[in-house]
Amino acid sequence: MVKYGLDYTRCRWILPLLLGIGVIFGIIALAGRGWLESQTLPYVQQASLWQNCRRPEQGGEWSCESLMRYAWGRAAAATYLVGFLLLVICFALAIIAFAIDTLRFNFIRGIGGLLFVAAVFSVMGLVIYPVKFSSEMEMTGINMFSWAYGFGWTTAIMEICLGFFFCCLPNYEDQILGNVKPTYFYSSP
Fold first, then answer.
1. Can you name the CATH fold of 10-167?
2. How would you list the strands of the sheet with 143-145, edge to edge?
3. Stated pTM of the model
């Protein structure tokens, strides 16, 4: 991307595209019911960020309780949700930044800083949830933190990596804008 510059049509939208994928992963984590699941048959427990569901036997009815009754449940949901909202704001700002013909590199660095703040909030929510869930909720059988929880961590890791990229991109401003003369290593005799 640096070799051809951000004006190169196919490379210009890679960063907003990656942020969009992060937003999709965040939506899956927020809406998914697979934060914690039973690992073996009979499946007796399934939890999301918002509720914990159990069933006493294989053919029984699921009974769900809201995790918003607990302070740690509200804290985990609020911190992860704040991180997700900051990610959505960064996505919108990235689309605006890359749609403008002349890039504002300080604006891009600000998006990177905001992504780091979003990552801090997301990681806080992702750490609060398993620590407090496993210590305060009654868990039966063998349970595992599952696919939706994994999507949450993927979103947090993408926020961190893209934050580094957004912050480091302005260091290559001259190369991106084509203001550097090429260096030739071949010299004639």
1. Butyryl-CoA Dehydrogenase, subunit A; domain 3 (1.20.140)
2. 63-66, 51-54, 45-47, 36-38, 143-145
3. 0.83
